[in-house]
Amino acid sequence: MARAGMERWRDRLALVTGASGGIGAAVARALVQQGLKVVGCARTVSNIEELAAECKSAGYPGTLIPYRCDLSNEEDILSMFSAVRSQHSGVDICINNAGLARPDPLLSGSTSGWKDMFNVNVLALSICTREAYQSMKERKVDDGHIININSMSGHRVVPQSVIHFYSATKYAVTALTEGLRHELREAQTHIRATCISPGVVETQFAFKLHDKDPEKAAATYEHMKCLKPEDVAEAVIYVLSTPPHVQYLPFDLGKGLWPKGGLPPTFLYPNSCPSGLGWQREALTLYLNGYPGLQAFSSPCSASPTPFPALQPNLGVLGVGGHHADYGKRTPGPSSQVDFTLDN
């Protein structure tokens, strides 16, 4: 069923990296269901080809186009964007989903493992972002969207040595998204930048990380209620369906405020604030975990938010947005510092 607000994206092109499984496959399917042309890329395209056939058989209005691309190779990435330009005019939405983890601690890990993570999680994301923006710019696309699928590991470091370097790459994604937001503002464009940071998602991630210990990998998903890839795909659709006049101003209040260590709910702010406050229209960060019951709110620049429908039942949206009374401050929160993403 077509989602309200997604009509403007129908027949336009989205690039989804890492679309062969997990979150990437779920996002690609969701976009095809909404009538988009989707280029799904990965090193192995057989799974994407199967998904494309499934989408076609299901009668979805969009199209999934498999493309083989080794994202650790810049020439492969540039060739992919060149092919998209020549065959489909260019990219309107870029979803940087591809990512990997290697079990290489800081004190004993292999340099090759670190390079693998850095090349895909940081460099490939940056190259795709640059090429997607240039594609939009040359075609005068001013409503494009760049979405980085990040991780809660990009906002906190957990005491698990095998993911410390992975966490460093995800912190880089957090910084790169903020930097991108500033550069888009300086370019005076309405192209948006979004960072979606899920908690634990039930995919093959843990099995690839702990490939020599499948029991440990399975235990990763057994001791907590995890997100499904479809939950993250739902968040992507939600983000894309928001009207241009809606903006999101996130910051993290830390753990310990909500049941099971969750973070407070998201606040959404329509772009109706008084002029001169310097609100940034491109900013959006969603923190996701599997805990039910968290709600979203909407307020026209007010300190008293009113209820806003949650994305869907049992989908936690974590993080909160500030209001203009808090503009420009950094204030200690109940359990940790408050990190604002506001700027002048």
Verbal overview:
The protein is of the alpha/beta class and 344 residues long. The chain has a domain at 11-199 and 228-244: NAD(P)-binding Rossmann-like Domain (Rossmann fold), CATH 3.40.50. It has eight helices and 14 strands. The chain has helices at 22-33, 46-57, 74-88, 111-138, 164-186, 205-209, 214-222, 229-241; strands at residues 13-17, 37-42, 63-68, 93-96, 145-149, 192-198, 246-247, 250-251, 267-270, 285-289, 296-298, 306-308, 316-318, 320-321. The protein has an eight-stranded mixed β-sheet with strand order 3-2-1-4-5-6-10-13, with helices on both faces. A hairpin with a 7-residue loop joins strand 11 (296-298) and strand 12 (306-308). Helix 3 runs parallel beside helix 4 (111-138). The longest helix has 28 residues, at 111-138. The relative contact order is 0.11. Mean pLDDT is 76; it is low at 249-285 and 289-344.
Q: What's this, in brief?
A:
34% of the residues lie in helices and 17% in strands. With 344 residues, the protein is of the alpha/beta class. It has a domain at 11-199 and 228-244: NAD(P)-binding Rossmann-like Domain (Rossmann fold, 3-Layer(aba) Sandwich).
Shape label: globular
State the major sheet: 8 strands, mixed
Question: How much strand content do the residues show?
Answer: 15-25%
Instruction: Bin the helical content.
Output: 25-40%
- Please, what is the average pLDDT? 76
Number of strands: 14
What Rg do the Cα atoms give?
19 Å
Distance between the termini: 40 Å
Q: Structural class from helices and strands?
A: alpha/beta
Question: H/E order of the elements?
Answer: EHEHEHEHEHEHHHEEEEEEEE
Tell me which CATH architecture of one domain applies here: 3-Layer(aba) Sandwich
CATH superfamily of one domain: NAD(P)-binding Rossmann-like Domain
**What's the number of helices?**
8
Poorly predicted tracts of residues: 249-285, 289-344
Please list the strands of the largest sheet in the order they lie side by side: 3-2-1-4-5-6-10-13
* CATH fold naming of one domain: Rossmann fold
Q: Would you state the CATH class of one domain?
A: Alpha Beta
Keywords: Oxidoreductase
InterPro entries: NAD(P)-bd_dom_sf, Sc_DH/Rdtase_CS, SDR_fam
Pfam family, one: adh_short
Protein name: Dehydrogenase/reductase SDR family member 11
